[in-house]
Amino acid sequence: MISAAREKVSRRAIAKEYRRQQLIDATIKCISKKGLGSTTLADVAGEAGLSQGIVNLHFNSKDNLLYETLRFLAEEYDNEFMAAVESEPDDAAAKLLALMRMDLKPSICDRNKLAVWFAFWGEVQSVPTYQKICTAYDDKYDEILLDLADTIIREGNYADIDAQTAIDALTSLTDGLWLSCLVNPKTFNRSTALNAVLSYLQAVFPDHYPKESLS
Question: Cα 208 from chain centroid?
Answer without folding.
Answer: 26
